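Issue 218. Parser rejects a valid record. Input:
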Amino acid sequence: MRDARALTETLGGRWYQSYGTAPCPVCQPERERDQNALTIAQGRGVQILLHCKKSGCDFREIIRAAGISGRRPVFLSRDVPSSRDQTRRTIAATREGQAKAVWRETLPLAGTLADTYLRSRAITCSPPKTLRFHPACWHMSSHRLPAMVGLVEGGGGFAIHRTWLASDGSGKAAVNPDKAMLGSVAGGAVRLTIGPGPLVVSEGIETALSLASGLLNGPAHIWAALSASGMAGLKLPPCPHKLIVASDGDSTGQRVAGKLAERAQTMGWEVSLLQAPDGLDWNDYLKMEGITNENP
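Output the parser choked on:
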């Protein structure tokens, strides 16, 4: 393995000019599309720097799990723990500062392009204060595009989620990736609604808002965990009550929903599963319901 970019590609990740992200082969062996715990960068000379921001996996375990030990040697940074920890803290503080700067530049969502985008997804609930609009949000491709920005709460620090939008709000922007997180998101969620009912957790923001647009019987606390791995690692409130895990209708969604449900039950939660129809998520279902109602 000659360089950081080649390693990123081998692990099925994405390269962004000076660094790459990829699923960590140790703690994210499923290698799902939204998994990117491993950061990869070029060090001095032939050194490759690895950092698993999810579990802090050892680089030797990463190389073994990736199955590349028999190829050309990979030289990795072996900083002493104190130096490595300081580097992690510096990176985390930088990203948190960037997330705060983006959030300060946002506008209330109602009446904006982000509002148009949500209506195009058949979402009719009132926009929450934890979702805002950025008219020109920086993207990794060095472009600035309109974006819907969500506030991630309950993680390790200040964090946001960005969804870049088409210029007319008809859908997501034609960029890769079309959504991304910034800051310490592990364990956190975008908290969308507050109500006297149960805590309802789904993966995506649009999926969660679909539940708030008439698919639930009564008010509830509705959270978007933002990804499959986010749902599996979600930090639940300390006082257990009723939890509804609203999963996508695919094998990954069902698997992580089961993990969250099992963990919640051991904590004393009263848990029920709300699975979307096979191959669909709850936003797909909401849009289908709208078509059915228009054409009885």
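Fixed in the parser; the record now loads. The CA atoms of residues 146 and 221 lie 28 Å apart.
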